[in-house]
Write a structure and sequence with these properties.
With about 190 residues, this protein is mostly helical. It folds into two domains: about 50 residues, Cytochrome Bc1 Complex, Chain D, domain 2 (Orthogonal Bundle); about 90 residues, Cytochrome Bc1 Complex, Chain D, domain 2 (Orthogonal Bundle), CATH 1.10.760.10. The protein contains nine helices and two strands. It is globular. About 30% of the residues are buried.
Length: about 190
């Protein structure tokens, strides 16, 4: 009887451990499914392979969620994003934002820094911080972000194709060269978050 009880206890312990060990696999597989279409542009690790697309790794969760909701609602449009979120629930969007925010983002500082861009960034400091990392959950980190993507966003804010009361004003005060300089500066300073 004693041996039997020992065997039963051991089996229960093994079953509990096995079920605990399978939970992360299920969660991982769920997020893999949710982000499968994201990886093509934003990279499997959240680091975009092209300068024209944003890296999402390490970005603020609140910012990511707000942008996902804006794309889903049509408030923000992009040819590639327009249909990507149509079948995603609110809970799915939260999981996607949490996932990308949890990934680390490392981009080495460039050997040369665009000094003109460093001067232009004075307009950016109050929201995006001294080193391009925000303290507010709803504003994006800019440090290390791809310059092609940043330049397009500045142009979209300037032309009001993209709507933000603050950014529409700031971007409209920049020349195209200043936009190029500051976008290049933020990519060049690299990041680790």
């Amino acid at each position: 009887m004693k041996t039997n009880l020992k065997n039963v206890s051991l089996r229960i312990l093994l079953i509990v451990n096995a079920s605990i060990l399978t939970v992360p696999t299920f969660a991982s597989s769920e997020i893999d499914t949710l982000t499968a279409s994201c990886s093509a542009c934003h990279g499997a690790d959240g680091v975009a392979p092209s300068s024209d697309w944003p890296s999402l790794a390490g970005q603020k969760q609140g910012y990511l969620l707000a942008q996902l909701k804006a794309f889903k609602s049509g408030h923000r449009t992009n040819v590639l994003m327009d249909n990507q979120l149509s079948n995603k629930s609110e809970a799915d969007l939260v999981k996607i934002a949490q996932h990308y925010a949890s990934l680390s983002f490392k981009k080495a500082e460039s050997t040369s820094i665009n000094k003109d861009g460093e001067n232009v960034r004075a307009s950016c400091l109050s929201c995006h911080g001294m080193i391009g990392k925000t303290v507010n959950e709803t504003w994006p980190n800019l440090a290390g972000q791809n310059q092609g993507y940043l330049l397009k966003q500045l142009k979209d804010f300037s032309s009001k194709k993209r709507d933000s009361m603050i950014m529409n004003v700031i971007a409209s005060e920049l020349t195209e060269q200043e936009m190029k300089d500051v976008a290049q500066y933020y990519e060049q300073i690299g990041s680790e978050y």
